[in-house]
Design a protein that fits this description.
The complex is a heterotrimer of chains A (222), B (253) and C (56). Chain A has 222 residues and is an all-alpha fold. Chain A is built from ten helices and no strands. Chain A starts with a helix and ends with a helix. Chain B has 253 residues and is mainly alpha-helical. Chain B is built from six helices and no strands. Chain C is rod-shaped. Chain C is mostly helical. The longest helix of chain C has 38 residues. Chain C has one helix and no strands. The chains are: A mainly alpha (222), B mainly alpha (253), C mainly alpha (56). At the B-C interface, helix 2, helix 3 and helix 6 of B face helix 1 of C.
Amino acid sequence: MTRAFIAIVGRDLALAARAGGGGELALVFFLTLVVLVPFALGPDLALLARIGPAILWLGALLATLIGLDRLFQSDEEDGSLDLIRASALPLELAVLAKGLAHWLATGLPLALAAPMLGLLVALPIEAMASVAATLLVGTPALSFIGAAGAALTVGIRRGGLIVPVLVAPLTVPVLIFGVSASNSALGGAIPFLTPFLILCALSLAAIVVGAFAAAAALRQAE
Amino acid sequence: MPSLTDLANPTRFMRLSAALLPWMAGAATILLAIGFYLAWFVAPADYQQGETIRIMFVHVPAAWLALMLYTMMAVSALGTLVWRHPLADVAQKAAAPIGAAFSLICLLTGAFWGKPMWGTYWVWDARLTSVLVLLLIYLGIIALWRALDDSGRAGRAVAILTLVGFVNVPIIKFSVDWWNTLHQPASVFRADGPTIHPAMLWPLLILALGFTLLALALHLAAMRAEIMRRRVRTLTILEAERHDRLAMQGLPA
Amino acid sequence: MSGLGPHAAFILASYGAAALVLGSLIVAILRDHRAQARALAALEQRGAGRRDRSGA
């Protein structure tokens, strides 16, 4: 069972690393989004620094959600989803493996790149660490809530936009606590740890709920 | 293709609902008429909010119904997934547009109430924002219904989405409250909402009951339409198959 | 309704908006109901509801 789990993670990572696999595309999309914001708002560095954590979080959220419809769709198309369903590995764990691989290929690079992009929006050094930390613990929630949405829409031909539409409202709490924890590092009444720990709790809950919901959705989509 | 046993239960439902529907619609009309009479001609104007308090009589029942219809959908989702009741996904599908409509009414009346009271049409007040997110969830559910062709599969997929949303709604409420106190320390409203004068409470309760009956009547009608739509689909397929067969038999002769 | 005070327009607008949304919902549902009932009646009149014995 452990071997099957590791095999799924390894396969998805290998697919993501390949050209056109979507891993680095999310990063480029993230960069593009962050670059677009100053063009819309104007190059006022004080303003950008104030809303910097929000920009980075929104960028990461969108970059995660945009490619999510492919998470199970490609497996459905080439038939590997049927193999995963038929294997001895419980579907919940298979979803966990897929979600983990998605996070390793998307969420983790986004979190690591965030400090660099923070330079573009004049984020102070101490806020960069906190933004990266919140993204690190918050993006798993996005991957797994998104996995549930992706599993629900498996088999829809033009499913590209529907996954973000389904998933975005459910990510409101993650966004609120992610940005609020990042901002609290910039100073403010609340200590960093309060929203940060709630964010961790949200992430853990999202992993469990997302894995079960996605597995249920994949079962009924047969 | 549904078998006859599948149709048996909906058939009984169709008969029952046809008998019930006029009574519910009538009772809703009477209650709404009484409620609006009391709300407009008997209830006094609020000493703080003046005549704008009349908006509350629509706003509050709409908010209550937006939540109630979502709860009904979550129960129907359990009915689909756990008890496999043949009517559960019909009930769920019929409830989504009605719930979305009532959350939209809640938001619109809130905006028109907010302009004279708060000075803007929209404030990111915790309760209004939560209803807005609820509307987005409703719209997502409707979008998923429309995206999936097979009604059986769509029913189960939407049921899962509804339950995930149901788990999420209290979390969203909690996080929006947190976010709101963070950004708006001095709220325009008292946290527990305006206290209600008893002369306003009665019309409000009557109207809430009337709107609830109206929503339930609409729900029944929408369920009936959905059941008939599925039967039409089945019969069309059956008819096409029979034509096919007749054509095949006819050819050699 | 004697005098709605200074905010009459907002009160009327909110009632109007609510009536509009609710009205279109009611019309849409009734229309759907009628259309499906008519389609079903037409099909049944053509005899599509009969179960044929030849087996499918």
